[in-house]
Each structure stands twice: as structure tokens, then as C-alpha cells.
Write a structure and sequence with these properties.
Largest sheet: 7 strands, mixed
Oligomer: single chain
Shape: globular
Strand order of the largest sheet: 13-12-11-8-9-10-19
CATH class of one domain: Alpha Beta
Distance between the termini: 27 Å
Strand content: 25-35%
Radius of gyration: 21 Å
């Protein structure tokens, strides 16, 4: 039952943003909607130092092995540049933009939306104030981020400060948090990702967790795939408490790597501050690239690979999300009568997200 539910969630949410581009699947009766795909890309040397000053021609983007044409490019906090005609970037046969779309080109490429998710479970009784200080310093340092949201979680999710440009509102929410009960990290992270996915521009979730998850019903693998498909990078800061469970450590590492983020394990409050500083530094050095996928019959998971061009650049390391799942959007009108009944054992495809969790979701 859980696997059926999570699968329905993953195929039903509008995952990416931009004018609709229909791409027909192998079946003539169902097609998917694939929109502008946005990537946060970090380039580092062997020592972890950031490589700056690269140009669009230095990157090659492949989706399922198909070479894609970049539509926009930006480095760090610089404004994104349009690399050519958007309709041409979509590729032959990919379709045209939806008429009357409320989104503009600037909506799609501008803005940094940072969601901070703070563990207030009973794991956090020790070091609670130090963690609040580290989060507050991080929020103050994000001067170039357009908007910040602050959420906290134990068994339930609390949206303490919705996405806003008002730093004082977010800082007040941090200081108002209190310790709770058990930890449902993956439940609450999925809800946070769901909120982040509704926004355009760069989307990042920064999680501070002091221990393993002991209350969630959502598997972490589904949470990771959701984040990849929604284009949300996950950064996780955890304390040594998580090291006591090797499974949690491995999950944190895999989840962040799959989305293009990082995982940190802090021994003390100074390490926590350094981890937040590293995340801030990472956000300031990311390359932002986007593209409209060319025609692709694959309606399932699509693999994304970003490579550096030129012998001098091949020695550097590239970090970004590894893929996404396009949205199955609607039945075509060609053979609607023949498919009026759902296929047995297959979830019905809708355009609205479905999410059911044990425990309560608080606003």
C-alpha cells in the first residue's frame, strides 16, 4: 500500500516549470508534459576548490544520451542570460509554448528560494540553543537569496515562517522554536519539498537534523526521487548522533548527492557553523543552466549527465542532480473511449498531488 501511494505521488505532481512541451510516449494514447529543466551545477578541483569563470560552451548537457541545447546560463548570484531563442532551444518536434501562461521568462530563471528545515525532536534537547545560533547566522548571511522559509519538525511539520524576503520574520521564527517529540524527518522533508516545488527559480532545502528518523511512513528513496524530479537541491547538516546509525549516514549521503547537494556531519557547534558557511559558499558558486528537452519517447526516469568540454577541464569534478521523472499529463482525445477505464493495478493519472501521512500536518 505504501509503495502504491508513493508511486502515485511521484507521477502526479507538476514537477518542472515553464511553457508546456508535449512529448509523445510509446503509447499513442498517453503523452507527457516536459518543461524547462533547471540545473544547479558545482564544478570543483580535486581539493574541493570551486572553478569559476566558465562559459556556456564549457558545458555539455545530456538527457538519456541526447545532447541538449542550453537555454539560460548564470554563474553564482549573477543574473541568468538567455542563450538564444527559447522556441528554438526546445528542439524540433518538441512543441510550442502554452498560450496565456502566467509565467514569464524572468519568472523561470530568477530568484533563490531557500527552505530551512530544523529538527526540533527530542534528539535536540542538548545543543538546541547552539543550533538556533548557527541557523540564525546562516539566515543573516544569505543576503543574495531572494526569499527564505523556516520550517521545524518533530513528529509533525510546522511552517514557522513561510517563504519571505523579510529576514526579521524568519529570525523570529527560529527563536520561537521549542523541542518536541519523535522525529519524522522524511515525512516532513517531503512536505517541505512539495512546498518548494511550487516555486520558480533556484530551489534549495537545507536540513538540520540531530538524529535518525524514527516516525516516518515515507521511504527516503521516494523523497530523494521527488527532490530530483522537482529540481530541488538538498543539503543536510547532522551531528555525530546520526553517525551512531550507519544506515542514516548512508541515506543522508545518497539523498544529497542525488540532488546535487551535500551532507555534513558536525562534531560540535563550531562544526555546525562551518557547515552552514560551506553551504552558503556553495550556493554562491553554483552555475545555473537550463534547457528545454528535445523529443524523447521515454516517459519514465530520464538520466541527466553534465560534462565539461576540453582537455583542460575534464580533470574537474561536476556535481548536479542525476535525473528526473517527467509528468504524465493527460489522455489524448484520439482513443479516449478505449481507455475510459483505468488499467488494472495502475494508479490513475491526475494533475494534482496526493499525499497521505501518519501524524498531523500543521501550518
Amino acid at each position: 500500500m505504501l509503495r502504491t501511494l508513493s508511486s502515485r505521488l511521484l507521477i502526479s505532481l507538476p514537477l518542472l516549470f515553464g511553457p508546456e512541451i508535449p512529448v509523445f510516449a510509446q503509447s499513442p494514447d498517453i503523452h507527457v508534459t516536459v518543461n524547462m529543466v533547471q540545473l544547479n551545477v558545482a564544478v570543483t578541483d580535486k581539493k574541493g576548490n570551486y572553478i569559476t569563470g566558465l562559459n556556456p560552451k564549457d558545458f555539455a548537457i545530456y538527457e538519456d544520451g541526447i545532447l541538449e541545447k542550453p537555454a539560460t546560463f548564470a554563474e553564482g548570484n549573477a543574473p541568468a542570460r538567455n542563450l538564444g531563442d527559447l522556441a528554438e532551444a526546445a528542439g524540433p518536434g518538441a512543441g510550442s509554448s502554452s498560450a496565456g501562461s502566467p509565467q514569464t521568462f524572468n519568472d523561470l530563471i530568477s530568484g533563490a528560494n531557500v527552505f530551512v528545515l530544523f529538527d526540533t525532536s527530542d534528539y535536540m534537547y542538548r545543543g538546541f540553543v547552539f543550533a538556533q545560533d548557527a541557523i540564525s547566522d546562516f539566515i543573516r548571511s544569505l543576503g543574495n537569496a531572494d526569499k527564505i522559509a523556516f520550517y521545524s519538525y518533530s513528529r509533525d511539520l510546522s511552517r514557522a515562517a513561510p517563504l519571505t524576503a523579510d529576514r526579521s520574520q524568519v529570525l523570529q521564527a527560529v527563536r520561537s522554536t521549542v523541542a518536541g517529540d519523535q522525529a519524522a524527518l522524511y515525512n516532513c522533508l517531503l512536505l517541505t519539498l512539495k512546498d518548494a516545488a511550487q516555486n520558480t527559480g533556484r530551489k534549495v532545502v537545507v536540513v538540520f537534523s540531530n538524529g535518525p528518523d524514527n516516525s516516518s511512513v515515507v521511504p527516503p528513496e521516494d523523497v530523494a526521487e521527488f527532490a530530483q524530479s522537482a529540481g530541488v537541491s538538498i543539503y543536510m547538516i547532522s551531528t555525530q548522533q546520526a553517525r551512531l546509525e550507519p544506515v542514516s549516514t548512508a541515506v543522508f549521503d545518497r539523498m544529497t548527492a542525488a540532488t546535487g547537494g551535500k551532507a555534513y556531519f558536525a562534531k560540535n557547534w563550531k562544526d555546525e557553523q562551518q557547515a552552514f558557511a560551506s553551504i552558503r559558499d556553495d550556493l554562491a558558486h553554483l552555475y545555473s543552466l537550463s534547457y528545454y528537452p528535445k523529443a524523447n519517447p521515454n516517459s519514465g526516469w530520464r538520466t541527466i549527465t553534465v560534462r565539461l568540454m576540453g582537455d583542460q577541464l575534464k580533470k574537474y569534478k561536476v556535481r548536479t542532480r542525476s535525473g528526473y521523472r517527467p509528468l504524465p499529463s493527460r489522455f489524448s482525445g484520439v482513443n479516449r473511449a478505449a481507455i475510459s477505464e483505468p488499467v488494472p493495478d495502475q494508479p490513475a493519472v491526475t494533475n494534482q498531488p496526493e499525499l497521505t501521512l501518519s501524524g498531523r500536518e500543521r501550518r
